[in-house]
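Purpose: get a first structural picture of the assembly so the mutagenesis plan has something to point at.
Setup: two entries, given in the order below. No constraints added.
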Amino acid sequence: MGEKRIGRSDILDFGSDRNLPAPGFKPAALVLGMGAVCVWGFYKLGQGIREQNADRTVNSELAREKMWSRIHLIPLLQAEEDRDLARRHMADQAREKQLTGDNFKVYNSDRFVRPTYAVTPANTTK
Amino acid sequence: MAARKPIFNQQVLVDTTPLPDSVPKVNEVGATSAPLLSASFFIGARCRPYNDDYMQCKTENPGKGEFECLKEGRRVTRCAASVVDDINKHCLDEFRKHWQCLDNNNHQLWQCRKDEWKLNKCVFDNLKLEKTIPEAQGIPVHLRSKQIYAHYPALRDPGQAPFKKAVDAPGAEAPAS
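Result (structure tokens, whole complex):
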């Protein structure tokens, strides 16, 4: 090769002829860095799922905390509701007995059935 | 059948007739959802046997539990009311702070850990009731000093400068059990 004239292609073609390093990170370093960021992100995602508030995940601790707090409260709430239902039912039965002299057996079973209809007084005293 | 929900949303449907005298009287707890959520684990700690009795009675009397389990239900209510009364007597400030925090944060327990730790400490010191979550993995979630879903770090108040511990996380050094 003899004397070479410098032209446009020589300026753009860095590296090959002139032994200059390519600018920027090497591709392998870029891939490794991206992989590291992804691994870190999935690690954080896993931590979040384990602690999250979704009741479908087995290990989600916040959901289990919420469930146990409700488990401790349910008997209390249900007892109050049951007392109210029993009170209304007994009052209904007493009214029926007072009006018709007898308690008509509506259902062919001993189970308690929540009333769908209620007798309302014609005029309220409140 | 018993799951049908009547909606008593009219004034005339309010039945004020009390229970007959043959049924002993009991005062209802009367707390709203936030105080109940705040006190739930203490209610569970003291009243677990009564709660289990009641639920067993309900299971053994399908369809009739409303009347057969009135006695167990009264015990449940009395026990829970005693817990709420005791908390009110000994830890009123901490209790109020915690359930008001819950009310302000959509009932998200993880937003209110700092108030919860203060309440738990006070309740344990005075009433010997401890909040435990059964079958917790590692450090129980309510004792972790880092609450990753909270808006603010658990050790910092909104607006407080960072790196100043307002209260020590009780579980930061607790062994995994």
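Chain A has a mean pLDDT of 82.
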